Amino acid sequence: MSATPKSRYAVILAGGSGQRFWPVSRDALPKQLLKLFGENTLLELTLERLKGIVPRENTLILTNHQQEKTVRELAKQLPAENIIAEPAKRDTGPAIALGIGWVAARDPHATMMVLPSDHLIQDTAAFQTVLRASCEAAEKHEALVTIGIKPTWPCPSYGYVERAALAGQPEGVPVYEVSRFREKPDSKLAEHFLAQGNFTWNAGMFIWSLPTVLEQLKLHAPELATFVGQLSESADLKETVATHFPHLPKLSIDYALMEKAARVLNAEATFDWDDVGNWTSVAKYLSQDADGNQHNCTLSQHGAKDNIIFSQTPQHIALLGVENLLVVAAGDAILVASKDQAEAIKKLADQLPGELK
Question: How large is the average pLDDT for residues 16-22?
């Protein structure tokens, strides 16, 4: 029997560190809590996309103590008890088990979605169609469902999902059997994946019914399954999390469960998707002048080309005779780097004074 919309839940992952987008991001202010694309943060945009799909009271946000205050300020529309700060860093396996236990305590027959909060998705209508189709597939086939992003280039930084036969097309969305998960490949292997045509990027979005995921956890991740049971029967969820969560093994959900589960399906993402990995990703959405300078603030330049300029506050920035630079201005720090080093910004973290981390 299919779950009704009222028995569908969303668990939003909103933790992580703030190194890739320094100096705008900090440990207490990672990517999902920044206003990189207008007036709303990525977390706020994630919540907005769920309107009409999941009731507010059925939406849970998992974060950490450093970021909890800001998350609560941004998600005031949610019940206070729906925002939980993990007491320790334990990777996505324990985090998602915490979400499963929270949902199980409310409705052990529900269908739940696990969604990152730091991706940019602009086509909300298509996104919601894929979520509804994924829920339908999870309920009908008693399977764990992933959402697959069609690769646009042989990226070695993502995990891949290898598809097999078509399992159905709920709401017109193709849903495939999964033959296996593949770890982050080198560039040559990634090119081979693209040439084959039956691989998608693993975007870390999962959908399943509670009975199905609990059965698979018991088989493949018994320690996580025990934790879920403790949560679902707990009279004090916060206390149970504080007592048991820090002792769980550090495991990704892919390794702990998805790579071993009996049946996994892959729903095709028909929406746009960007994981916004660094400042060069943000630059694609900024204004651009005739010399290729991408910027979000007032810019004067002479003989400058192919630079990225981002200012956290309204100000005028001038460039003279420079090329291929990344200039990021925050209230208390400025980064000047080669664009080619955008992925290496996190290496600066250990050299920064404590107040700037």
Answer: 85
User: How wide is the angle at C-alpha 216 spanned by C-alphas 211 and 220, nearest 5°?
Assistant: 155
Q: How far apart are the first and last CA of the chain?
A: 50
Residue by residue, DSSP assigns 209-223 as EHHHHHHHHHHH-HH
In whole angstroms, what separates CA 218 from the centre of its chain? 25
Question: Which SS3 state, helix, strand or coil, does residue 257 take?
Answer: helix
Please give the model's pTM, rounded to 2 decimal places.
0.94
| Cβ pair 133, 171 in contact under 8 A | yes
What are the start-end ranges of the E strands in the chain?
8-13, 59-64, 83-86, 111-116, 144-149, 160-168, 175-182, 199-209, 264-268, 287-288, 294-295, 298-302, 308-311, 316-320, 325-329, 334-338
- Of the candidates 100, 108, 115, 111, the one whose C-alpha atom is nearest the C-alpha of residue 237 is 100
CA dihedral (339, 340, 346, 351) in degrees, to 10, reads -80
pLDDT tens-place string over residues 248-293: 999 999 999 999 999 999 999 999 999 999 999 999 999 999 999 9
| Domains of the chain from N-terminus onward | 5-268 (3.90.550.10), 279-356 (no CATH)
